[in-house]
Amino acid sequence: MMKKEHYHRAFGVYGICYSSHELLVINKGGGPYKNRFDLPGGSLETGESLVECVEREVLEETGFSIKVDEHIGVADFILPWDWKGFTHVHHIAVFYTVSIVGGTLVQPDPFPGQDSLGALWVPKEMLDLENASPLVLKAVNWLDTNELGMGVERYEKWKVL
């Protein structure tokens, strides 16, 4: 008998920081993007605005203080993920371009919910489906085309590494 699909809805805010032909990414330590590159960002805390969230998340995950430059849009992704009784995740992501205004690249402090294993700069040409999250792939496509697109992206054959 086939398992009924059950979707976990995840909502997050993410920063696209691109400099010298490299994208700022994190090594993901948990969730459906574990062991892949992901964008710095994450979930809202109570009472937090979207911009406050991306500023806090980028600082926590990378060590960089940022300035939010532009809201570029929202995209969503659906992929299989066997987690806590869910069969899929429906990830809704708000994207901003951001610029570094201070700080240095640091190893993030561990705390409950911290899923960044550290940040690094990666040439966008080296990012692909084998090593990157759908958010990173969307950011690379946006950097190349200046468009996010409007349809949901479904990754039916997604494998959690």
Automatic annotation (TrEMBL):
Annotated GO MF terms: hydrolase activity
Q: What domain of life does the UniProt record list for this protein's source?
A: Bacteria
Which Pfam family, an example, fits this chain? NUDIX
Q: What region holds the Nudix hydrolase domain?
A: 6-144
Instruction: Report whether Hydrolase shows up as a keyword of the record.
Output: yes
Q: What UniProt keywords are attached to this protein's entry?
A: Hydrolase
- Give the record's family classification: Belongs to the Nudix hydrolase family.
Which PANTHER family does the entry link to? ADP-RIBOSE PYROPHOSPHATASE, DIHYDRONEOPTERIN TRIPHOSPHATE DIPHOSPHATASE
Protein's name in the database: NUDIX hydrolase
Q: State the organism of origin.
A: Lederbergia citrisecunda
